[in-house]
Amino acid sequence: MTAATIFTPNAMPELVDTAANAGLGNDNLYPEHDSIEDAADNSADDDGSTLEPTQTAAFRKLQKKLRRQVSWAIRDFNMIEDGDVVMVCVSGGKDSYTLLDILLLLKRIAPIHFDIVAVNLDQKQPGYPEDILPAYLNEQGIAHYILEKDTYSIVKSVVPEGKTYCSACSRLRRGSLYGFAKQIGATKIALGHHRDDMLATFFLNLFHGGALKSMPPKLLSDDKQNLLIRPLAYVEEKDIIEYAKLKAFPIIPCNLCGSQTNLQRAIINDMLREWDDAHPQRLASIFKAIQNVAPSQLADRELFDFETLSLDRDNEERLFEGDNIQAGQTQSLADIGLPIAPETQTFNPKFASKPPAEKPTDSRSTAQKIPTINPVI
Fold first, then answer.
1. How high is the pLDDT of residue 19?
2. Which residue in 86, 117, 110 sits closest to 231, CA to CA?
3. At which positions is motif PP-loop motif (predicted)?
């Protein structure tokens, strides 16, 4: 495995931002109406001139939304602290490009100091366009490493023919990145998984793994040597798709397995898209549910101590003492001192528009009724 010489980032272009001194975890980081930006957006769109996609009000509104959501996730899960070295894993896909772009914007306005270094793992897939990502990172002046490790041959050798490579590829990639993070002294590893990835993983585990678990926003690796963070945890995939389109990121498709599809995940993703189209708030509600777990209302004996549940009552006289009642003995509620429920058919004028009409009395109703018998033909 080799690593390219780290590139020193150039100064980022100056952006208009009224929250220049606000913190990552401050609710006022992006006020509802950024007067300077909003005024510029409105005037630019109203004059009828042709604008670049990233100069439109729609783009700035979307960018502001993503910055807010990422800053909220960082605040809620304490993802980035003063002095951190954040290693952003960049694959060349829309998610990692968006993550890197938003983190660089937040770095400029954060009240704390942290460094960002982009890392790409070149897995030596045949036909992989190895020049695209370095060219983009150099053009943007972003400090980065390109790791070269032939995990492609390993995956091909261990995965049976006809099976998907995603799981094995992911494990090998993760192991390589974990080791390199320690090598460069990175304190956090930032991954580009978004809200919809987390929901899809939840349902994959639910349907196929028999477990209630997903991708956590923050995770300590099994060897306790690396901290993983997912700053896009609150971001919807459709917003990332739109943002990547407007920014015109040079997307590199994953052709390791010939664009092979992970069928189970693809089915889950289709299900989530159908739900989102038919019920726009359903996915948000499900995501809220995985943040609002009630262990006592589930059945995990390790998560909740059902065995030692006990009553907390005063030692009062009890009605049932075991030998003070005989089989077949019955008592009314009044006999044992309990209140009697009121009659359920009592008319309550509060719930009726008009009082019920009195039924006319008919002397014939007292006569014995003879049932009608239909003859069998």
1. 39
2. 86
3. 91-96
Ligand-binding annotation for 169, yes or no, is yes
In whole angstroms, what is the distance from residue 5 CA to residue 2 CA? 10
Residue 254, annotated ligand binder? no
Is 323 within the bounds of a domain? no
Q: Is the dihedral of CA 217, 218, 223, 225 positive or negative?
A: positive
Q: Is residue 97 part of a domain?
A: yes
* Structural element, H or E, at residue 67: helix 57-76
Q: Whole domain around residue 112: which residue ranges?
A: 24-32+53-292
89 is in an annotated binding site: no
For 37-47, what is each residue's pLDDT tens digit?
Answer: 444 444 445 45
Query: At 132, which CATH number?
Result: 3.40.50.620
- Number of domains present in the structure of the chain: 1
Residues of the chain with pLDDT under 70: 1-49, 162, 164-165, 255-261, 317, 319-377
Query: For 248-347, where are the alpha helices, taking DSSP H only?
Result: 263-278, 282-289
The answer as to whether 333 is a domain residue is no
What's this model's pTM, rounded to 2 decimal places?
Answer: 0.75
Is 143 among the domain residues? Answer: yes
Q: Which residue type occupies 369?
A: K
**Tokens linked to 234:** 């609150």
Task: Kindly report, residue by residue over 251-269, the tens digit of the pLDDT.
Answer: 998 755 544 557 888 999 9
Question: Buried b / exposed e across 362-372, counting CB within 10 Å, b at 16+?
Answer: eeeeeeeeeee
